[in-house]
Amino acid sequence: MATATSPVIKPDHATRQRHFIFTDEHEDLRESMRSWVQKELHPHRMEWEETTWPSEIMRRAGELGYLGLCFPEEYGGQGGDYYYSLVRADCMSYAGSGGTSMGFAVQTDMVLPPIHLLGSEELKQRYLPPGIAGERIGFLGITEPGAGSDVAAIRTTAIRDGDEYVINGSKTFITNGARADFIVLVAKTDPEAEHAGVTLFVVDLRDSEGNAVPGFTVSRKLEKMGMHASDTAELTFEGVRVPAANMLGEEGKGFYHISWELQGERLVAAAGAVSGAERIFERTLDYAKERHAFGRPIGRFQAIRHKFAEMATKIEAGKQMVYATAWRFENGEYPVREITATKLFTSRLACEVADECIQIHGGYGYMREYEVERGYRDMRLNRIGAGTDEIMLEVIGRSYGL
Ligand SMILES: Cc1cc2nc3c(=O)[nH]c(=O)nc-3n(C[C@H](O)[C@H](O)[C@H](O)COP(=O)(O)OP(=O)(O)OC[C@H]3O[C@@H](n4cnc5c(N)ncnc54)[C@H](O)[C@@H]3O)c2cc1C
Q: Could you give phi then psi for residue 90, rounded to 5 degrees?
């Protein structure tokens, strides 16, 4: 940068340039939350691969105010804008544990937002404060053994019986499913109808002692390729009763409601994918500067240097897509095409970066003790969860009237 004494303008690669959507307040939060994640989460990343993340850390995050950043103060939140969600996703990437980041994102960006947008005042009072405090953990139940991408084909039913609905069916691949206290459930109130039969509910699944409500069972804890720090479960509902007042939004409009929820979920997934890719890039850069072959650091080979240049370019493009799309979302637009494209692009780039970083690590990249190995397995979910690449392409393609 030019100064009063020198007109020579030199590039300053060391400056962390702030994007215009972020203010000093966002940056203050980034600093404090990142430091918490580095001190209290990152050291446990290997242990939690075996045990899954402990629920106490959600309470700790609640105490520190990290779960309610974008929710109104009257429910225990901080009343911040949507960009705080991006900052939180970025900070969580420093945990070095995709499973932990995902468990948190389910609570903050998938479960609480639909309750806030669609719930009655009574439901908001009942579910948001304990959720924001991290005292009660929730999960989102869309996917079923027979229906994932095709949401309108779900078969779990919620049939009215007086002032209640009775739920029967099953859900699978559910993040936080083995531990959670309540569910934002997607069910069919009219089993004969397709999209028009879908309705959302918030349903208590455990009492204050932690016992499952009658009819609810965690039928199976699922073993996965990656995201080991996260619990994933198959769940059964046999005559589970929920008050009619626990409906979120309107009966039969659940498909639109859940499509709205998915936009926030996809945008935060994109933010997490870019940050995750950036963390692996940084670790690999350090490695490439230290590891020697043929008498020089491997990063000094043009072949390796260009890999970093390619990755850095794509990461920057992904970041800009996330920020620009988030700006539109925050400013009242509903940019479904752009959110979808951002989710698609960043999911692919995260997988590509993880793959290249393994390559740069050589044999060490294949070893469990190296963060890139876990990152590679964790990142692969991005192209499947919150909607697959193929579904993203369908949404984008159809948005052009094709
Ligand atoms: C670790 C993990 C955590 C998850 N957490 C949750 C959760 O918390 N809550 C939840 O509800 N769900 C969750 N999911 C489910 C996830 O959202 C689904 O797996 C995903 O939406 C895909 O659905 P599916 O697995 O049934 O695949 P399918 O829908 O059966 O798709 C199989 C293949 O067919 C392709 N395909 C399907 N339809 C089309 C089409 N129209 N055009 C072209 N190709 C198509 C897909 O892209 C995919 O390649 C999770 C999944 C995993 C693996």
A: -65, -45
The pLDDT, as a whole number, for residue 255 is 97
**Phi, psi dihedral angles at 179 (to 5 degrees):** -115, -15
Residue closest by Cα to atom 47 of ligand 1: 390
Q: Where are the beta strands (DSSP E) in 123-275?
A: 138-141, 157-161, 164-175, 182-188, 198-204, 216-221, 232-243, 247-248
Residue indicated by tokens 């208590």 = 204
Average pLDDT, stretch 1-24? Answer: 81
Residue percentage of the chain with pLDDT more than 70:
99
Tell me the CA distances in angstroms from 331 to 21, 325, 334, one per residue in order. 11, 10, 9
3-state secondary structure at position 88: helix
pLDDT at 4: 66
β-pair partners for 184: 140, 202
Q: Give the distance (Å) from ligand 1 centre to CA of residue 387.
A: 6
Q: Are 229 and 100 in contact (CB under 8 A)?
A: yes
Q: What is the pLDDT of residues 225-252, one digit of tens each?
A: 999 999 999 999 999 999 999 999 999 9
| Nearest residue by C-alpha to atom 26 in ligand 1 | 148
Count of alpha carbons within 13 angstroms of residue 134, beta-carbon side: 19
pLDDT for the residue numbered 3: 64
Q: Could you give the residue numbers annotated as active site?
A: 265
391 lines ligand 1 (CB under 6 A): yes
What's the whole-number average pLDDT of the chain? 96
Backbone angles phi, psi at 277, to 5 degrees: -65, -40
Please state the rounded mean pLDDT for residues 306-333: 97
- State the pTM of this model: 0.96
User: CB pairs under 8 A, 24+ apart, for 323-326?
Assistant: 323/19, 323/21, 323/86, 325/267, 325/270, 326/21, 326/82, 326/83, 326/86, 326/267, 326/271
C-alpha 154, offset from chain centre: 22
Q: Of all atoms in ligand 1, which is nearest to the CA of residue 150?
A: 29
